[in-house]
């Protein structure tokens, strides 16, 4: 019906032709599928081990290109913790081919965007530009990765910048709570360290440590050059062969490298930072989660979606879907909560982050959150699984809106698993998850499992670890 209305409107909008002229009849064309290479992620490995991966969209006017490196704060030692993030700051401060001013001017003249970030397991440098400017952007990325000058004056300037950044992070309670959660869950292990590193390290990191980190980790076998948008695969492969063939083929087997590849052990434990000047209790509770390539990866995400999220400040707070959010709202137990499933190459954290100003009822809030976890092992309905699956699919698909998001998805998947599942494949995997799968996951990963707890703020009334741990096997 809509198509007929549109055809009618088009006909009514046409001017009547002058005498002696005729127009061909307006006919409705058939919608036909178009075969496009955009439907598939292509990858090629160069002789030196560098992987090139693209998702080509022939009608896109822009492209995102970037380098994903299998090295983050996890590839550091306790003494060099913070080096990866420090390098990210210095990457744009000049190379042997370009001064900082020339680099900034070149990017500005292109109208492009150049950025970078560091995580516990990856370092990423990427640029977004018009398609015609992709070769120049790849040249810039190759230059900053292979030819950064790392001048002493720049190191000293960035040292102060990073120290101020560290101060800002310490004011963000969620960041602080999750850093402490990692520190207690993965004690004395690389995954438990922060990305920025301790202030002492930031003040003492030297140029030698920075250059050693590049030499030991920025190697072809641990890099993926990604393109998403209007950049054809063959063109990006040619650009990679032109700009990245001088990269070392493999990483030296240093102690730090071997430690970074050693499986992290989850340790049931807790850490509490009491500060009564903070008006809320901010608490994260987690069990050991799943890795990126675990068979339970998507089941863990569905279970997380069933527990759900809640924010009292939102207008739809009473109707946010999950049973826990309804109970929390009805009894005014929390300002907000957020369930999470954080994955790494060999392990993960699955849990919930709670924020409340009802300080005398913190124990009730924790009890009902863990009771919901126990329920997942016993009684999950088809309706709530379908709701969680719909939310998860929408979240994943909406997060892939734009070339930068697609490049991020390709880079992250290939650097961690060696391949990329397309959105369609992910959708089919999620569709096949049943309530039985969720309960099986909860029985193995949640029921009577050790937990890690991180609590910051007004946390005097948080029960002791043994009492909270006992709630992990409650028959409801």
Automatic annotation (TrEMBL):
Catalytic activity entry: Release of N-terminal transit peptides from precursor proteins imported into the mitochondrion, typically with Arg in position P2
Annotated coiled-coil segments of the chain: none
The Peptidase M16 C-terminal domain, residue ranges: 205-392
Residues covered by the Peptidase M16 N-terminal domain: 52-199
Transmembrane spans: none
Localization (cell): Mitochondrion
Domain of life: Eukaryota
Record key words, sorted: Hydrolase, Metal-binding, Metalloprotease, Mitochondrion, Protease, Zinc
Main location: mitochondrion
The protein's required cofactors: Zn(2+)
Gene3D superfamilies: Metalloenzyme, LuxS/M16 peptidase-like
One Gene Ontology term of the molecular function aspect: metalloendopeptidase activity
EC number: 3.4.24.64
SUPFAM superfamilies: LuxS/MPP-like metallohydrolase (SSF63411)
The family this protein is said to belong to: Belongs to the peptidase M16 family.
Function: Catalytic subunit of the essential mitochondrial processing protease (MPP), which cleaves the mitochondrial sequence off newly imported precursors proteins. Preferentially, cleaves after an arginine at position P2.
Protein name in the entry: mitochondrial processing peptidase
Lineage: Eukaryota, Fungi, Dikarya, Ascomycota, Pezizomycotina
Gene designation: MAS1
């Amino acid at each position: 019906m809509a198509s007929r209305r549109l055809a009618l409107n088009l006909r009514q909008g046409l001017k009547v032709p002058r005498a002696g002229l005729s127009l061909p009849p307006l006919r409705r064309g058939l919608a036909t599928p178009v075969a496009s290479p955009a439907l598939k992620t292509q990858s090629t490995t160069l002789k030196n081990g560098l992987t090139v991966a693209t998702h080509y969209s022939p009608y896109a006017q822009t492209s995102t290109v970037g380098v994903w490196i299998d090295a983050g704060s996890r590839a550091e030692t306790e003494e060099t913790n913070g080096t990866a993030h420090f390098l990210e700051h210095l990457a744009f401060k000049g190379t042997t081919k370009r001064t900082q001013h020339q680099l900034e001017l070149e990017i500005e003249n292109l109208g492009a965007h150049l950025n970078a970030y560091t995580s516990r397991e990856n370092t990423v440098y990427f640029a977004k530009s018009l398609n015609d400017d992709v070769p120049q952007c790849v040249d810039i990325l190759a230059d900053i990765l292979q030819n950064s000058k790392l001048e002493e004056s720049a190191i000293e300037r960035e040292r102060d910048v990073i120290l101020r950044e560290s101060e800002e992070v310490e004011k963000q309670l969620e960041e602080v709570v999750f850093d402490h959660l990692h520190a207690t869950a993965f004690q004395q292990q690389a995954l438990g360290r922060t990305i920025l590193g301790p202030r002492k390290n930031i003040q003492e990191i030297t140029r030698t440590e920075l250059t050693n980190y590049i030499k030991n980790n920025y190697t072809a076998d641990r890099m993926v050059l990604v393109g998403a948008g209007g950049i054809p695969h063959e063109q990006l492969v040619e650009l990679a062969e032109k700009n990245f063939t001088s990269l070392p083929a493999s990483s030296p087997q240093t102690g730090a490298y071997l430690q970074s590849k050693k499986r992290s052990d989850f340790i049931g434990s807790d850490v509490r930072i009491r500060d009564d000047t903070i008006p809320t209790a901010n608490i994260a509770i987690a069990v050991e989660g799943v890795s990126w390539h675990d068979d339970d990866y998507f089941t863990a995400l569905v279970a997380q979606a069933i527990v759900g999220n809640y924010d009292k400040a939102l207008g739809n707070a009473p109707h946010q879907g999950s049973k826990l959010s309804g109970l929390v709202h009805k009894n005014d137990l929390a300002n907000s909560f957020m369930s999470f499933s954080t994955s790494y190459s060999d392990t993960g954290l699955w849990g919930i982050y709670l924020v409340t100003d009802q300080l005398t009822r913190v124990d009730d809030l924790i009890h009902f959150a863990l009771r919901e976890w126990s329920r997942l092992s016993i009684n999950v309905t088809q309706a709530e699984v379908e709701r969680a699956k719909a939310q998860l699919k929408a979240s994943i698909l909406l997060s892939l809106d734009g070339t930068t998001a697609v490049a991020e998805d390709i880079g992250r998947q290939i650097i961690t698993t060696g391949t990329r599942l397309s959105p369609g494949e992910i959708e089919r995997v999620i569709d096949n998850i049943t309530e039985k799968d969720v309960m099986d996951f909860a029985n193995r990963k949640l029921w009577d499992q050790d937990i890690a707890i991180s609590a910051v703020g007004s946390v005097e009334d948080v029960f002791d670890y043994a009492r909270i741990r006992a709630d992990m096997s409650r028959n409801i």
